[in-house]
Amino acid sequence: MSAPRIAVSTYGEVANWGVWREEAAVLHASYVCAVRAAGAVPLLLPPGGDEGEAASVLEIVDGLLLTGGADIDPQCYDAPRHPKTGPPRPDRDVFELALARRALVLGRPILAICRGLQVLNVALGGTLTQHLPEVVGHDEHCAVAGVVGNHPVHFRSGSRVAEMMGGHTEVSAYHHQAVDRLGDGLMAVGWADDGVVEAVELEGGGWVIGVQWHPEVDRRGTLFSSFVKACSDVRSVA
């Protein structure tokens, strides 16, 4: 059987290479390396798609990886914009929300990372805290601009995420927003010391996991290999 195919969301940014400076679809190589190291084929999706494209993509892949990046437009969860929330990125918001919702309908495994967790939460009707320092009283989740930091987490005993982390209690984090009200069917299974939700699972569903940290950076635990195993199981019955 061939390796599972995983759809991976990307960023729409102005990028420089050679003599060029143009709009581009880009992604940190750490995501691609983590997917390949776990035994799957990453298929990178440029932002800007719609519901029809999301449906077409999810028919031909075995799983969905929602990556990190810019803040979600608070209009997506009916909230006023906080002054610290980044500018709207409708090219990502529309497509990634459609991808998440379609993947849930089809029962595709989902690994949602950082912004990806927030997309998953909003797709299921949840809301976000738009600027954590005002709520938790510190900036340890995003202490130094452009530098991924570390902080401790604790997990619900017996949860999938706890088993996959295998005793690891430090994670690599870089975010200033987080889950506020959980989306329908999501269950919090990991928290930072300040109470910020760091991991969620879908109750009674398939393999759907969101983490607020960056496992593609630290590679602690078996999140990627477990995700790819779930995608392989989908492929074997397709």
Polypeptide structure, described:
The structure is a single chain. The strands form 3 sheets. The protein has a 9-stranded mixed sheet with strand order 4-1-5-6-13-12-11-8-9, sandwiched between helices. The radius of gyration is 17 Å and the shape is globular. The model has no long low-confidence stretch (mean pLDDT 95). The longest helix has 17 residues, at 90-106. By secondary structure, the protein is an alpha/beta fold. The chain has 8 helices and 13 strands.
Task: Record the SSE blueprint.
Elements: E1 5-9, E2 11-17, E3 20-26, H1 29-37, E4 41-45, H2 51-60, E5 63-66, H3 90-106, E6 110-113, H4 115-123, E7 128-129, H5 132-136, E8 149-155, H6 160-165, E9 170-173, E10 178-179, E11 186-192, E12 197-202, E13 208-211, H7 215-218, H8 223-237
Parallel strand pairs: 1-4, 1-5, 5-6, 6-13
Antiparallel strand pairs: 2-3, 7-10, 8-9, 8-11, 11-12, 12-13
Helix pairs in contact: 2-3, 3-4
Keywords:
238 residues, alpha/beta, nine-stranded mixed sheet, two-stranded antiparallel ribbon, 8 helices, 13 strands, globular
Question: Briefly, what is this?
Answer:
It is built from 8 helices and 13 strands. The chain is α/β, with parallel strands linked by helices and 238 residues long.
Which stretches are poorly predicted, pLDDT < 50 over at least 5 residues?
none
Number of strands: 13
Radius of gyration based on Cα positions: 17 Å
Overall helicity: 25-40%
